Automatic annotation (TrEMBL):
GO terms for biological process: maltodextrin transmembrane transport; maltose transport. Residues 1-23 form the signal peptide. It holds the Pfam family SBP_bac_1. This is Extracellular solute-binding protein. The keyword Transport applies. GO terms for molecular function: maltose binding. It comes from Paenibacillus roseopurpureus. The keyword Transport applies. The lineage of its organism: Bacteria, Bacillati, Bacillota, Bacilli, Bacillales.
Length: 478
């Protein structure tokens, strides 16, 4: 998740304590948060503690931990929800350390794309037979699919966010860009390339770029992955389970992305731009368009605008008022739009010892509590994220939120073209693809951005690694 919510990474950095899974027993009927009776076979009145490792999912999320725990115990008097806070910087490392030690928390917040890895390690808990129909049916189908692998369900989704781009309305209009048309109809790579060229302006000896994307460190793969989905490669594997990044489209994409730097539309020093610097450049009028742009960035921009108006010294230094506009990523080589979405959620874990049926049911209750109703509505409103549960939508109806309606419509348009989940990809293939991404794609792409590696050289390196991992017949040849 660190790479998915970079702006929120600096919101909270709290210390953590070691976590251990706890067990329970008993058989008396209980009630789910949706207000329906849970099956007696998985209910319990015995005391039990459920542990959860949670990062700052939204700007105010961790401030609500105490109330969340109280509300959970009010709903289930025999249960305690023990929440351990973590920062984005250390949550993944902490979780991996505990998983490797065989004692993970009962629940951990993270990206659905990490599910195959934890399945391979044998400590994710399949909740298919424990989650009640009322729980499952509360969720929109598309995001719930992301929490599955094969026939198993390994947790509940918190939100389905679109990885879009974000533009400065004033600068877009000065460049003659019809941003409302782009929000509705999208744009091709050639249209996007010409648009960001128009956004390059030099004023008072300073350059404002047309486009800046955070690419330092692991953020590099975000940039490439988002664009690859719109270049005919929505996943690392095609429907025949052939590794997709050996396609000619991949080479074409690498050439196209490098061209944006060579055009002067992006800074030559792009390889040094991390998430914080990218956002700072956007707020200080150093770029017209930024990426990756999440819905919550509109909220962050408005908060900074208010500080500027109030002459608040905590506003970003040298920042200007920004009217944040959500924009889709361009499409490449005639491909159809395939909006990059991130589905993060509450994954259910087990220790080396098989949990009791009662404890497993209690973990599911806690995961559902966090992913639905008031908790979900409050968190998603804080993120400006779409609500994905019926219970969350009901709670959110009474909550005020200040969003640009054009941006709301733009996100809804992109969600119509959201990249579908692929629960059919075997976990071992996914694990190999992640290894190639980590060991080959990220460093080579960083070299490409820095001008040290050519598109052709990177493509050949990826192809060589793919053949070694999947065999000559396990890759796309076109």
């Amino acid at each position: 998740m660190k790479s998915k919510m970079p702006v929120l990474a600096s919101v909270v950095a709290l210390s953590m304590m070691a976590l251990t899974a706890c067990g329970g027993s008993g058989t008396k009927e209980s009630t789910t948060p949706a207000g329906t009776a849970a099956p007696a076979a998985t209910a319990s009145t015995a005391k039990d503690t459920i542990t959860a490792l949670l990062p700052p999912v939204s700007p105010n999320y961790q401030k609500n931990f105490e109330q969340m725990s109280k509300d959970f115990t009010a709903l289930y008097p025999n249960l305690t929800l023990k929440i351990e806070p973590a920062s984005w910087e250390d949550v993944k490392q902490k979780l991996d350390t505990q998983v490797n030690a065989g004692s993970p928390p009962d629940i951990a917040f993270g990206g659905s794309d990490s599910i195959p890895k934890y399945i391979e390690q044998g400590l994710l808990m399949d909740i298919t037979g424990t989650a009640t129909p009322d729980m499952v049916n509360d969720f929109d189908k598309a995001p719930l699919e992301y929490m599955k692998n094969g026939k198993g369900l390994y947790g509940f989704p918190a939100y389905m966010e679109v990885h879009a781009l974000g533009g400065n309305k004033e600068f877009l209009e000065k460049a003659g860009i019809d941003w409302k048309k782009v929000q509705t109809n999208g744009w091709t790579y050639d249209e996007f390339r010409q648009a960001i060229k128009k956004g390059v302006v030099t004023e008072n000896g300073k350059t404002r770029y047309g486009f800046v994307f955070a690419v330092k460190g692991v953020a590099a793969v975000d940039y490439l992955g988002i664009m690859a989905k719109n270049a005919g490669m929505p996943h690392a594997f095609n429907k025949d389970l052939k590794y997709a990044y050996t396609s000619k489209n991949y080479l074409g994409l690498l050439k196209d992305l490098r061209a944006l730097i060579d055009d002067g539309s992006m800074p030559k020093e792009l390889s040094s731009v991390d998430a914080g610097k990218r956002w700072n450049m956007f707020l200080t009028a150093q770029t017209m368009i930024t990426g990756k742009g999440l819905a919550t960035f509109e909220n962050s921009a408005k908060a900074n605008n208010a500080k500027i108006k109030a002459a608040d010294g905590s506003a970003v230094k040298d920042s200007v008022p920004v009217d944040y506009i959500v924009l889709p990523a361009p499409t490449f080589q005639g491909a159809k739009p395939s909006a990059a979405t991130v589905v993060d959620g509450y994954m259910a874990f087990r220790g080396k010892k098989e949990p009791t049926a009662e404890h497993k049911a209690n973990v599911v209750k806690a995961a559902y509590f966090l992913a639905s109703g008031k908790v979900a509505a409050t968190t998603n409103n804080d993120l400006f994220a779409a609500h994905i549960t019926q219970s969350g939508k009901k709670e959110a109806a009474n909550m005020k939120i200040d969003r640009n309606p054009d941006n709301v419509a733009a996100v809804e348009n992109m969600l119509k073209n959201a990249t579908p989940a692929r629960s059919d990809i075997p976990s071992d293939l996914s694990a190999k693809a992640i290894k190639i991404e980590t060991e080959v794609i990220v460093p080579k792409f960083q070299g490409l951005i820095a001008g040290e590696v050519t598109p052709e050289a990177m493509y050949e390196a990826v192809k060589t690694a793919a053949i070694a991992a999947f065999g000559a017949d396990g890759i796309v040849k076109d």
